Amino acid sequence: MQIAVDQEKCCSAGTCVMLAPDVFDQRDDDGIVLLLDAKPPAELHAAVREAADLCPAAAIYLTEDT
Q1: Res 65: pLDDT
Q2: For the chain, which domains are there?
């Protein structure tokens, strides 16, 4: 799995951080998403998929490894 985020689309909801804190964080000044791990281990994939699905701004993009 490869992850990308669009900081321009991010609305600072923080759902991603709550669901996958090892993969996502937020900037202190405005809450915009920060990607901590663009290629997380398999045990985090379910949480990352949920974070992407629930992102209100659709700012998280996933590419599955084939």
Answers
A1: 79
A2: 2-63 (3.30.70.20)
